[in-house]
Amino acid sequence: MFILEGKGLTRSFGGVQAVRNLDFSLEEGKILGLIGPNGAGKTTLFNLVAGVFRPNTGEIRFLGKEITGLKPFQICHRGIGRTFQIVKPFGSLTVLENIVIGARFGKSTQVLDRFDPLPIAKEALEFVGLMKEKDILCENLNLGDKKRVELARVLATQPRLILLDEVMAGLNPVETAQVMSLIQKMRAERGITIFMIEHVMKAVMGVSDWVLVMHHGEKIAEGPPGKVVKDPIVIEAYLGERVI
After folding, report:
1. Which of 87, 89, 107 is nearest to 99 (CA)?
2. Helix H segments across 61-169?
3. How confident is the prediction along the chain (244 residues), in pLDDT tens digits per residue?
4. Residue 20: exposed, middle, or buried by beta-carbon count in 10 A (0-12, 13-18, 19+)?
5. Taking the mean position of all CA atoms in its chain, how far away is CA 72?
6. Domain 1-69+161-168+193-244 has CATH 1.10.620.20
7. Where are the domains of the chain?
């Protein structure tokens, strides 16, 4: 079953087509890696799925229902969570308070008066290993912990699908391995489907079931990671050399 599908997606900004007639699909319970050079249209594609932009043409379907053009909060309520390239926690709030915001945002406003976000927020913190830091102000965290706050906050929205936008950017090898483990754990223990943009090829190769490659807004290749990184078109457009 495809949890997420895009058909004929195009998005232009002025005279520039950031996404061009793109088709893609993602099976439920799988991890899809999205790679390509800077400016390939990867984040624009995420913004189309998340409702930040509306496609000029094409449609997006989640769990078989069209979500094209819905607002970000509506898409979140349907079960799609999202992280960002640059982490921006509320620095003057504690770690726990940041996660509570995620828990509240993931629920329909009609039930907020009967909804206690604390158990969900604390469970998300336990999941990413940050419970001991729950009372620390986010502005005092290092980058690795801020990334885990981002993961906990999106988990607190209780998603079925998470869009991860370069969640490992800027991390050292130990931190990268920890985040890779968390991504695999989200899928294994929570049954969450993952769609991830990533430039860290070790991570793409290590966790992805399938890889989609974009260049100049178009899909130029897709397939299992081991096959995609040996594709001459992908090597020329993005990798520069084979990744073993």
Report:
1. 89
2. 72-78, 95-105, 118-128, 143-155
3. 899 999 999 999 988 999 999 999 999 999 999 999 999 999 999 999 999 999 999 999 999 999 998 999 999 999 999 999 889 899 999 999 999 999 988 865 545 566 788 999 999 999 999 999 999 999 999 999 999 999 999 999 999 999 999 999 999 999 999 999 999 999 999 999 999 999 888 888 899 999 999 999 999 999 999 999 888 999 888 867 544 4
4. middle
5. 14
6. no
7. 1-69+161-168+193-244
